[in-house]
Amino acid sequence: MLEKFFKPDSVAVVGASIKEMKLGNQILENLLKGGFPGRIFPINAKADSTTRIMGIKAYPNLVEVPHSIDLAIVVVPSRWVPSVIQDCGAKGIDSVVIISAGFKEVGEQGAELESQLFKLSRNLGIRILGPNVLGIIDAHHHLNASFAPANPPPGNIAFLSQSGALGCAILDKAEGEGIGLSKFISLGNKADLDEVDFLAMLKDDAETDVILGYLEGIGRGRDFISVAKEVTSRKPVIMIKAGRSEGGKRAASSHTGSLAGQDEAYDVAFEASGIIRANSLREAIDLARGFSSQPIPQGRRVLLLTNGGGAGIMAADACEQFSLELANLEDQTKERLKEKLPQDSSLANPVDILGDAKSDRYEIALEAILTDPNVDGVIVLLTPQSGSDEDETASIIIKICPETKKTILTCFMGQKKIKRAVEILRNNGIPNYGDPEDAIRVFEAMFRYGEWLKRPVEVVKTFPVSKSRVDHILNESIKEGYLEIGGERALQIMKAYGIPTVENYLVKELDEALEVAERLNSSLAMKIESPVISHKSDTGGVLLNLKPTDVETSFCKLREMAKKIVEDNRIRGISIQPMVKEGKEVLIGVSWDDVFGHLIKFGLGGKYVEIYRDVSTKLVPLTPSWTKEMIEETKVISKLLKGVREEPPSDAMEVEEALLRLSQLVCDFPRILEIEANPLVVWEKGGVVVDARLRLRNGCS
Amino acid sequence: MLEKFFKPDSVAVVGASIKEMKLGNQILENLLKGGFPGRIFPINAKADSTTRIMGIKAYPNLVEVPHSIDLAIVVVPSRWVPSVIQDCGAKGIDSVVIISAGFKEVGEQGAELESQLFKLSRNLGIRILGPNVLGIIDAHHHLNASFAPANPPPGNIAFLSQSGALGCAILDKAEGEGIGLSKFISLGNKADLDEVDFLAMLKDDAETDVILGYLEGIGRGRDFISVAKEVTSRKPVIMIKAGRSEGGKRAASSHTGSLAGQDEAYDVAFEASGIIRANSLREAIDLARGFSSQPIPQGRRVLLLTNGGGAGIMAADACEQFSLELANLEDQTKERLKEKLPQDSSLANPVDILGDAKSDRYEIALEAILTDPNVDGVIVLLTPQSGSDEDETASIIIKICPETKKTILTCFMGQKKIKRAVEILRNNGIPNYGDPEDAIRVFEAMFRYGEWLKRPVEVVKTFPVSKSRVDHILNESIKEGYLEIGGERALQIMKAYGIPTVENYLVKELDEALEVAERLNSSLAMKIESPVISHKSDTGGVLLNLKPTDVETSFCKLREMAKKIVEDNRIRGISIQPMVKEGKEVLIGVSWDDVFGHLIKFGLGGKYVEIYRDVSTKLVPLTPSWTKEMIEETKVISKLLKGVREEPPSDAMEVEEALLRLSQLVCDFPRILEIEANPLVVWEKGGVVVDARLRLRNGCS
Fold first, then answer.
1. Are residues A107 and A172 in the same domain?
2. Does any CB of chain B come closer than 8 Å to the CB of residue A20?
3. What is the pLDDT of residues B636-664, one digit of tens each?
4. ipTM
5. Residue B646 — φ and ψ, nearest 5°?
């Protein structure tokens, strides 16, 4: 599938031009300069039987080409594109790259044309990349069907870009810095083929070991996640997702008309699918260089080898920042080093072989260190000092490197004196980073990816629940015209899914209230039940810490108050609950993201939720292992649950189960857009939801 | 002062050698290669009347040189250094750079030698840079008295480095990337001259506009701050402070034997003195390039100009991340742009002049944008696309740049195609950054520095207090043998400085207790008062929410309990307090840092302080404006004090005053090492300290 986009035997350029600076001209030039081994057919409406463009015979249209064509590159003005697609159909071409702009990105009319184009191609069985793309490159097949002014060397990194301009920047960098690419795909408007299609294809591409992507928005969120999960189980995927900020989002939507969704959801989705999110171009390229050339570290124990104290200290700082461990060398290794290194060398980690270290000292140290079982990887630091032999040291490293399965990254710092050494390293599969932080960040990401590869199989746990009860309550509320549900009904829904809730008695009359109070024999809470009063405590509709003797006056007070705010038939009654004993207050909830669907949240609960913002978020359906991670991830509430000083720990298992049941609830009822329990009060043993609310999608589902 | 270190007329190299690869040889070579315009005297003990080193007449010792010598560079083995210093004295040389290693950094014996050296030089009136340094460079004076294998071009950035190795890396980078330096100073062991001396000197150095530094530790913390404050009022100071982490600190102390102090204290001290802290070499150099060539922005409103949507989006994201504003162009400017730019251009911010933009379009846009009063600075983004003319665009930018006082930074992205353009920009005072984030980070730091320059004069407020009362309590406690003071005494100390405290009655006998209880007529707290029980609540020594009828049994219970733990004569009695009404619980306190002295803290209080970690820290003495900032800076408690939803705001003024008074207390009593009030309960009006403790320095002061 998609084979002909990358390995075509023949390519037609529709809109090829003799005029320089025209895109059609540039694409043809790139094809030729790139050394495309197959046939090339320039198509120009004005061509006659003698026309040649850049020395190649041209044709007035696709149909008149007397050979079969695998791939068509279209660069004619947007209004002519549909007729070219018709020609493709007639000619039996099923793979088309539409370079032309002037579609969705320019407004409504363009969007109309684009959707027309899509329908047409679908009918004709044609797959389209574009419109509004920079083109496509397969460096191994010598296919450069793009108008990028660059020709990257072949390598094992595939690069997908939603921005043509950034594509140009990265291709230029790849060419300038010798970063080898397998394929480059400019995604553009994604009328047909999108990141999901190409990810799926790259999964099995033998020429690609690492996938790098720049995205502004994803169309098919759930498909993306399931495909990405499969891909990342085989090879690393590094993504830049731009449009984090409001300003960035606005710019993105005017750029490629992307549906952005909440940026936070991308973090969650990338995490769930094992994608490594990069925050800048440099970070992305740094990562790609590491992943594409070095083995994944089997642990987090890093050894720092340096010829300068300062560099070692900065690297040690970075290790802590990125939660890596400084490896402890075995005594035996230290002995070996002590024997052969100068006396003043430091054999702790960082291992400092001193400013006058030449390559031989690096060799001695590396050979000893790499055989030490306590070391998972090495960062070799070098500052160009007067005695340093940078090039020789690089040569030593590349000689030793193939003998080990451990991760080796280098950090030769400086510029002029290390230039050649960095080239030697790079050409032999050792990525060099200019700053210790960068090398360590890459190491950490590689380690984390290794953990991802080793992760256990995820199993979604299902509990026996009362689906019909929830169905009934939802229908009842919808029938009454309410899409927001709070109070007693929300608690009932939670309860139907086995989430523990506070005892709640809905009463209509005073004598009922008194009867309940007597039965409960406890300090009480009383709340107005009305679907139109959503924030009850803000409107005074909640009375707390009542004694049984307070019930009568409280009942009347609440009823009076309710009558002032809403019509009588909108009051369902008054809820009476026992006051729950103190515990840790947590929040559990689910929200909706337009791209990725349901997101589940856990955090510190109570009335100051918005202030503390101690929340972690995962994708639904939730699995037991993600649930544990979710709780662990919070900064404050995870520690509070463990118990502070003399406190006993709270019942985290109860919280985990509640989260899993909540996940099951929204999976069973996709019409629930949002649901929240706050607080869920957790004790040493057990816990209860005290208040809850939910919101349903408008329309049926 | 220190003039002769940088602008000597004559230099002697003591330890000059004919052997290549010897440091003495390399320093001489650097002096010659650097084109030093003055006289050079190689000194070598074995020299006779015919000896020449690198063609220059050599002498067996300093004394025999028949000319005056301004600066001596010493590279002989450490044990011979003292006698060289003697010679310097005899010869009247008062400026000496000691390159030689083998002092404090190698252990006790070396430290001994170093202190001997220091005393000797002090007696002889000699100032020493070193030992264990890379050397010193004055690029304008063509003085390269270092063994760094680099020769940086002259410029306006001075660079101080505690690490010789990192010095080499930066010098190599400076040379390779054309970053101009005024001076380079390797600080080494800082036996005599240190960062404080050089900062003071660089303040008035006309050749230096920006100071860049790498430090591992500071010796004279308070001096550093006061000098740094003066310097940063004139020119920006950018510092890397390595050794943030435990691992890094360990490595640092074994490296130059630095006294590290708490890393957090460096953040506080740098902030207080207007120093910009850089987290990596790259960041430091990025900042230095921006500050050294562009004007300080007068506001935070940034205009992004781009030829690619993706780059614009990433830049907009970065603006939000670094709290900059996207400038809103005036309608008039937009009209001007609309007239002259292609129809599909985006005139919002980012201004997108499209992928086929050539230099003329950049020119049109820049000219309009730079005259817009809503714009404080511009980031010019360029991705090398097929139609781009990178070099021409660079030329346009450097043509327009001198006509404006606004900050212009560029972000030409890529490598090969932009290389020449980046050089054109750099050579004309426009720093280019490879990633939008980097440019924006620099812009933000420059903006922040502009705010620093505009800051109001700081005035320390002093309150009338009872110093003698505190003196008395401290002496009493010290006399009893206790350096830790809690409970009633700590509250008394706070009270003596006008910090509101809860009413507290210390009673010895039951009848006194009953009397107090009757008078208070409130819910009560009772606490054992003993200087040996510091964490009372952990040991059950605190009883809360007592009714007056509980007093008798509580009194007996506490007394029994106390007797079990401590001897009778160690119990001062029992404190009785009224329970205070609920409020926001904050913490105020002061801790001690070995480098910078007293640090004052404010944060969320209560029993979960360690969990929330919502604390901000400043230097003592605190000023009113720093106090406000300190409260603002906290993430949670600042918002809680403002009141959430229907809540009224709490009395922040009360907190501010308490902090200022606490600052005054520790300034008046430097023997207080630590003091903490937690909680200070704050209400809508007023507040009280409920519990406090302090710790005194061992020995008198």
1. no
2. no
3. 999 999 999 889 999 999 999 999 999 99
4. 0.94
5. -75, -5
